Amino acid sequence: MIDLGISKLALIGVVALVVIGPERLPRVARTVGALVGRAQRYVSSVKAEVSREIEIEELRKMRNEFEDAARNVEQTIHQGVSEHANAVNEAFSGIDNDFDSDSPSGIQPTWAAATKPRNGRNSWRNKQGAMPKWYKRQHGVRTWAQSGAARVKRHRPARGVPRSFFD
Fold first, then answer.
1. pTM
2. What is the domain range of residue 54?
């Protein structure tokens, strides 16, 4: 860095006063100050951009490490699931396939009954019950049944104010 003391600044000021003259010196000083300010802003913006790029590069590295770790976890999960699926398939391959619905004894394994669809699984009432109450309130879905008379009473305008009130 340039070492500018008070004596050196005074010498530069005297030389500028002699060379430029007292009439133009304030305007030149303003111009020099503006140029120095622009240079400082430019340097600070370049520093900020370089630091931003460094942070982005660090974030990219972290993202790549995270993706690699996620892939490793996914692979281990898939391997574990495939091992268990193979073990289950081997266990079921040993079961006799004599259990049919048309077998004379009519015996069915317990897992066969669980695969049959239940009646009413996709009914409207089951679907309405599956909606959360906050969603019903937000979208105006009725949550209880109301008779016609109760609905009329609820929405009927209030009776007028009695005459004796104004007298």
1. 0.38
2. 6-84
